[in-house]
Design brief:
- This protein is mainly β and 224 residues long.
- Helix content is 13%, strand content 37%.
- Strands 1, 2, 3, 4, 5, 6, 7, 8, 9 and 10 form a 10-stranded mixed β-sheet that branches.
- Strand 2 and strand 3 form a beta hairpin.
- It is globular and about 45 Å long.
- It starts with a strand and ends with a strand.
Length: 224
């Protein structure tokens, strides 16, 4: 699928390493940027606990490309995950389903895979629209400083497709840090009293209703 892409020139709020594709990326698009080469690889591989899709750049940040999915039901509720951090167990936040793009995998295929693994919902690639948004984020997680470039897709499923979480497809890290999944109305999500990522998610989802207009919006760089 092809989308029009709205972008800005890279600046202080938008890392130049993030390139917004006009079409879904193919396998050749998935090499990590030069700045993201894992400087630990020569000493026996990545020295961190986040998974092989994360590579350490010369700036010391772990980096990965990720695919995320805004999953809506027939009542425009959005399915979200609540998780916490290992070094801040008292802090938790809601976020969209998704995760890292594996080597040789397209962002769209990663989106479909992550939805299946995290929620048990099986999507076909034709069920997924977008990316509707792209963004970059710098954050601390699991005792590491991280940067993640995200392509965010949209899919609509019946509410009956998710009733209760199935942890059988979760990684050990996900087992450790994911607390729950649940459907949210946009009104309730806008009023929630803990953090939600991306920031302003309720308004972002509302901007996609009743249907996505086909334009990919870049949300810039967030420091979370």
């Amino acid at each position: 699928m092809t989308s029009d892409v709205s972008t800005r020139a890279a600046g202080d709020d938008e890392p130049a390493a993030f390139v917004v594709p006009a079409d879904p990326p193919g396998p050749a698009d998935h090499a990590a940027p030069a700045a993201a080469v894992d400087v630990d690889a020569g000493r026996g591989g990545p020295v961190h606990a986040l998974g092989p899709e994360w590579t350490r750049g010369a700036d010391g940040l772990l980096f990965r490309r990720a695919a995320r999915v805004i999953l809506l039901d027939e009542d425009d509720r959005v399915l979200l995950i609540r998780g916490h951090d290992a070094d801040q167990p008292e802090r938790s936040w809601w976020f969209t389903i998704g995760g890292g793009i594996d080597a040789g995998e397209s962002a769209l295929d990663a989106a479909v895979r992550e939805v299946r693994e995290e929620s048990g919902i099986v999507l076909a690639t034709d069920d997924v629209s977008g990316p509707v948004f792209t963004r970059s984020a710098i954050f601390d997680f699991y005792f590491e400083h991280c940067r993640q470039d995200e392509e965010i897709f949209l899919a609509r499923v019946p509410s009956s497709s998710f009733v209760v979480e199935d942890r059988s497809g979760w990684t050990a890290l996900e087992q450790d840090v994911i607390d729950e999944l649940r459907w949210w109305t946009l009104a309730d999500l806008a009023a929630v009293d803990i953090e939600v990522f991306p920031e302003g998610l309720a308004a972002l989802v509302a901007s996609l209703l009743p249907v996505w207009d086909g334009t990919t919006r870049h949300l810039g760089l967030a420091r979370e």
